[in-house]
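Data availability (excerpt). All sequences and predicted token strings are deposited with the supplementary files. A representative entry, DUF2460 domain-containing protein, is shown inline so that the format can be inspected without opening the archive.
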Amino acid sequence: MKHYGLSDDPQTRRITRPLSGSVRLSIEGVEQLTGWSLEPGGWISFAAAPAEGQEVRAGFRFDVPVRFAEDRLQLSLAAFRAGEIPNVTLVEIRED
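Structure token line:
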């Protein structure tokens, strides 16, 4: 989960696509280089569970699934092997 916003209006996002190789994990502020793995769906699996009450934190880059807002794209092929796409709107696909 990633948390955004102010304490009186918090926003939470479930992260399902962390980028492999970018994940850094700590337990009680001590980075853990081994003893865990990144599973499908963004889950972290530990070789041995952290003790109850220990703070586990992670940092990572992640992808966000999106789709095109429209079924058709307006293209302009002004010259041979050249063109432009003036406006492409993407919509986030929420995976709650």
